[in-house]
Amino acid sequence: MKGWLIPLLFIVLPSIVQAQDSIKLELLHRHAPQLHARPKTQHERLKDLVHHDFIRHNRRQAWETPKTTTATASKTNAAIQMPLSAGRDFGIGQYVTTFKVGTPSQKFRLIVDTGSDLTWINCRYRCARGDNCTTQERGIKRGRVFRAHLSSSFRPIPCFSQMCKVELRNLFSLTICPTPLTPCAYDYRYIDGSDTMGVFANESVTVGLTNSRMARLHDVLIGCSDSSQGRTVKNVDGVLGLANSKYSFATKAAERWGGKFSYCLVDHLSHINASNYLIFGANNNQLTVLGNTRYTRLELNLVSFSYAVNVQGISIGGKMLDIPLQVWDTRKGGGTILDSGTSLSFLTDPAYQPVMAAIKMSVSKYPQVKLHGVPMEYCFNSTGFDETLVPKLIIHFADGARFEPHWRSYVISAADGVRCLGFLPARFPSVSVIGNIMQQNYLWEFDLEGNKLRFAPSSCTTR
Question: How far does the signal peptide extend, from start to end residue (predicted)?
Answer without folding.
Answer: 1-19
